[in-house]
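Example 3.2
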Amino acid sequence: MKEMFIGILASMFFAVTFILNRSMELAGGSWMWSSSLRFLFMLPFLFLIVLARSNLKQVIDEIVRQPLHWLWWSFVGFVLFYAPLTFAAAYGPGWLVAGTWQLTIVAGVLLGPFFFKTIHSKNGPIQVRQTVPMKALIISLLILFGVLLIQWQQANVLTVHMIIVGVLPVVLAAFAYPLGNRKMMELCGGRLDTFQRVFGMTLASLPFWIIISTFGFIKVGAPSSDQLLQSFIVAICSGVIATTLFFIATDRVREHQGKLAAVEATQSTQVLFVIIGEVLLLSTPLPNGLALGGLFIITFGMLIHSFYTRKIKLNPKIERLRKEQNL
């Protein structure tokens, strides 16, 4: 499935986040600057892209029409996603943050019942609640098991404090990111393209990033030149390129919970890219035999997801309603 390839490509750029965030923390940079600078740097690039495509007015009109919804779901999808990730990076290694983050592949599947599918019939629109695609959930759990095997070789260095400050914030982020993304797709209803939606969410979350950066300035002063540079790289690679690619992939399959789960599962490949990056840049140890088994399981799980999504049909309840309404 083409969308899964796009998701894997996005994961490669997302991996930059975990590597450089850890690098910045090891160099003494504040997580508050690491989180806020990414979105502050993203905004002008996204603004120029949307402006060049002559799509700016439509974004502003959408935000003005439902400002509170845009503020809230942008806060959930961006702030509650990225601020906890950078906070966790201050207290835990990249492998721990990246590994825990893979909970999002299961979180995305479990969020299905919180959303409704609109069926347009002769008697008007009908709202049908989405269901949890069990096959997709089982495959995602298999991939998550592979991720856990990769993490096992470092599990002996974990402490209670590291779990509280390095794991729990990432669990929050793992649910917030797919929830915010899906709610914004629902809110936009296909009226905005991916660039417009990412720009709109970045713009709507701007007040929160200004507040966080203000606290950062009060607490630790201005960011260093190295942190500015690395945050800029994260903003381009992860914020603009990876986020846009991932949103494109999820937007293309937003009507199919199983396919959406498969695209979200591609984020598991971030662990592979993070391991490679940390070995090359931060001199972390190579994975052992058990971890290599985990890598195989992840790859196998992704192949199963790809095979499964080729056979996915619409929700049976939706198909039945369509037949009953002669759609």
